[in-house]
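ok posting inputs for the nickel (II) ion job
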Amino acid sequence: MGVQQDHHDILETLQIDPEFLVQQEHRPTLKYNDYKTAVGQHHVVPVIDLSPLTSKKKKEKKSSSGLESSSALTQQEHDAHSFIHNLVEQVGKACEEWGFFQVINHGVSLSLLEELETNAQSFFALPLQEKAKVRRTFENSLGYYDRERTKNVRDWKEVFDFATSGMLQLPADVGSEGKQLISHTNQWPENPSTLREVCENWSKAVEGLAFELLGLISQSLGLPATYFHKFWEPDDSNFIRMNYYPKCPMPNLTLGVTRHKDAGCLTVLVQDEVGGLQVRCKNGEWIGIRPQRDAFVVNVGDLFQVWSNDRYKSVEHRVVVNENKPRFSFPLFFNPSPRTNVAPLPELLLCGDQVPLYRPYNWGEFMKTKKGTPPIL
Ligand code: OGA
Ligand code: NI
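and the output
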């Protein structure tokens, strides 16, 4: 009690909202730029090289434009096939053992990322009253928000959310089983004036990558590459979040995002060079994901845990902030149509002879209860 009280005094002196205070047992034990585990080993989240996939795509382009004769491709096709097979195995292993992995040679251009970063920096540097013009409201869950909470603790961050399709459809009310959907549309600020175009270009590129990853994960479960695509039709609930984690004078007492699991299907995230994203290992230890300029961090969310009936578990993670540098990260939350009913897949239960561990639920309804709650203004 005394200790907690002391912290409140410090927070008051620093004029920090006590809602940021993380309970003692969940406070960060590892600094934002410490990538070692407590016992000093270098556990590393697997890094997977996607070049077989990107070169396959290039070849497909060439052959469809008739630049190469079909007979010349046979040996190459054979090699490509075994490279993809190997990739699928690596992805499956990473999903099973870690729930997280990084990908390099993913085909998303670095110059797009640089443009996104510059625009994000300009946007978050605007005065609050400017950012508030595109603030999330009760009717529209997209836009700027600085009061997000995770597990009822306020996150030390500001966000800007936009849907990759331009809008997000959510049930009008909880209980309507996703039948009556209401559109939440992207809100774009006046400044920086290039933000919209840059975000739209970025979202096309990263969404393409996410579909490729979905194909690999699907194959790693023994399903056809396009098996899951039907859940993204006729619409989806993909959205991108620009995360800005300001410098924090009390990084030991707060978190950028408290420990949590992602509720959706896949998260495909790029982080800047600062560091702070930490993942809970199977042994309970937290480890930091070392930023790598050319890498995306990928993790499977709760939907995959349900679909795969616990074969691919959604893993806890958090963001540690620091006193020295602000941090940016840009996750794509790659999620199916709000109409999707989620349940362990019969195809996977049959081959494993298992019983389903989860009851079916409606994804739109679930999002509505999470995202559609009134924002605290
Ligand atoms: C999230 C998240 C990690 C990061 O927004 O769900 O886990 O590095 N973000 O910003
Ligand atoms: Ni997350």
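notes: The pocket of N-oxalylglycine (ligand 1) is lined by residues 241, 243, 257, 262, 269, 271, 277, 317, 319, 329, 331 (CB under 6 Å). The radius of gyration is 21 Å.
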